[in-house]
Write a structure and sequence with these properties.
This protein is mostly helical. It contains 10 helices and 5 strands. The chain folds into 2 domains: 82 residues; 121 residues, Rossmann fold, CATH 3.40.50. α1 crosses α4. The termini are far apart. The relative contact order is 0.12.
Length: 213
Amino acid sequence: MWSQCLVDVLDDVSPGHRIVVGDFRPHLRDGFPWHHPERAHLDLSNPDLWWDNLGPLFRRSFEAVGVPPDLSEVAVARVRPHYCDPNRFSLFSDSIDALGALQQAGWEVVILSNHVPELLSIVQGAGIGDLVDEVFSSALIGYEKPNPEAFRIALSGAEPSECFMVGDNPEVDVLGAERLGLRAILVRSQSSDSLPRADDLLSAAKLILDAAQ
């Protein structure tokens, strides 16, 4: 989404440019906090500081694809509001049914994501705020998955063995959670044959409900 966001911003500030998503990708492979999850970044837990820290990355990326410096400054200023627009995000078709089934069965649903500080408002704007008990964004807690501190914060004192982690990244979501003693389910990923998996979120919810019986 980040490369597409930068292209969209350029569409606004420089109509007719010929830059495409693939032009940005090589320049965004490093520089985000989640690229170095072993490092805590408690000093960036203020939203403005978090975004200011990314300013040089976006500026370099724009200039690397040929955007003039003066125009790059204008574009950088528009990245945050554009990326955080809830209308840019969409739910999987089974998200509401899956979350609703877990909530009805008495499960506490928590989102833990390597994401922007505005994740809570994005979740609410997507229409699932009432189906989620808590939202933890790595930008605000200062730790990125699979750092164990990120999972400890999201657990909020709950017993890991009584919790499930559902995610689409084998290393960041599943193995990271399992190292701390959580049960984990890999969804919408074919990258590993050795991990517990479900085709979609609703299937994962059913696995959780069955395991609790």
